[in-house]
Amino acid sequence: MADEMQVEMTVNGEVRSATVEPRRTLADFLREDCGLTGTHLGCEHGVCGACTVLLEGQAVRSCLVFAVQADGCGVRTIEGLSPSDGSLSGVQEAFRTEHALQCGFCTPGFVVAVTALLEANPDPDDEEIRDALSGNLCRCTGYQGILAAAGRAAGSRRGVQA
Amino acid sequence: MTAARLVGQSIARREDPRLLAGRGRYVADITVPGMLHAAFVRSDIARGTILRLDVTEARSAPGVHAVYTAAELNPMVHETWWYMAGRDATYPPRFCLAEADVRFVGEPVAIVVAESRALAEDAAELVELDIEPLTALVDPDVARADTVNLVHPEIGTNCPQVMPAPDDPELDAIFARAAHTVTARFTQHRYAAVPMETRGIIAHWDRYGEQLVIWAGTQSAHEVRGFYARLLGLPENNIRVFSPDVGGGFGLKVMTMRDEWAVVMSSVRLGVPVKWIEDRRENLIASAHGRDDLMGLEAAFDADGVLLALRADHVENVGAYPYAGTASAGALVGMCLSGPYRVGRTGYGNTAVYTNTLGRAPYRGPFLMETVGPEQLMDVAARQLGLDPLELRRRSVITDTDLPYTLPSGLVYDSVTPAETLEQAAKVIDYEGFRREQSAARDAGRLTGIGISLCVEPSAISFGALGTEAAVLRMEPSGKVNLVLGSSDTGMSVATTTAQVVADQLGCAIEDITVTQGDTTLTPYGGGTQGSRSAVLYGNVAVLVAGKLRAKLLAIAAHALEVSPDDLEISSGSVSVKGDALAALPFSSIAELALVGHDLLPPGMEPGLEVSHRFKPLPITFCNACHMCTVEVDRESGLVKILRYVVSEDCGVMINPKIVEGQIFGGVLQGIGGVLYEHAAYDDAGNPLASTFVDYLVPTAAEAPVIECAHIASGAANPLGVKGVGEGGAVASPAAVFNAVADALAPLGVELRSTPLGPGQILAAIEAAGWS
Question: Is the ipTM reported for this complex over the cut 0.85?
Answer without folding.
Answer: yes
